[in-house]
Amino acid sequence: xxxxxxxxxxxxxxxxxxxxxxxxxxxxxxxxxxxxxxxxxxxxxxxxxxxxxxxxxxxxxxxxxxxxxxxxxxxxxxxxxxxxxxxxxxxxxxxxxxxxxxxxxxxxxxxxxxxxxxxxxxxxxxxxxxxxxxxxxxxxxxxxxxxxxxxxxxxxxxxxxxxxxxxxxxxxxxxxxxxxxxxxxxxxxxxxxxxxxxxxxxxxxxxxxxxxxxxxxxxxxxxxxxxxxxxxxxxxxxxxxx
Length: 242
Known about the structure:
The chain is of the alpha+beta class. 41% of the residues lie in helices and 23% in strands.
């Protein structure tokens, strides 16, 4: 069950928030006050943080762990929309005026989540112009990302979509190992298929082919990029036969 984490005192919460858009726009005293309104809850692997359709009563920041954002299809299958890493804001619908959560979030590993009441987030946008502008920039960036993803799904080959998605994740979470750049996310082939808008069989076929050619190592829920330049060439569509 979710529980309080006493080690996350106000100073530590404030330190986390100052590294997260749009809270980084707040002055130190305001940031500490906001941190005082927050609480930390711990979620075990597989535990639901909030469900699609629930009242959007809070804004969330992932402090530690990993979270996936999912929606359910008509045939009751979960489709992964986004992977959340520490230091990222999610479930912010209530903060910018949406009454209900548009998706479900689930902990992929034991995760600590900072939770701020949506009403407090809305108050900050009213009282602090810099914060309000940062929220606008955040929403604009997310809109551009959504438009870019829609364009990719409509116009680009599956190989390019998968290559770009892996490179984005490597840029966010990658760490260098002896084998190559390890993507530090729980990444099943079904998750890759969902994130790239394709089928499991297609994603599996492409990843297996790249594995055989030494471009990457694709394990059960683990990806290591061995030849980043080759993956960049595929993402940039430099020669279809790479």
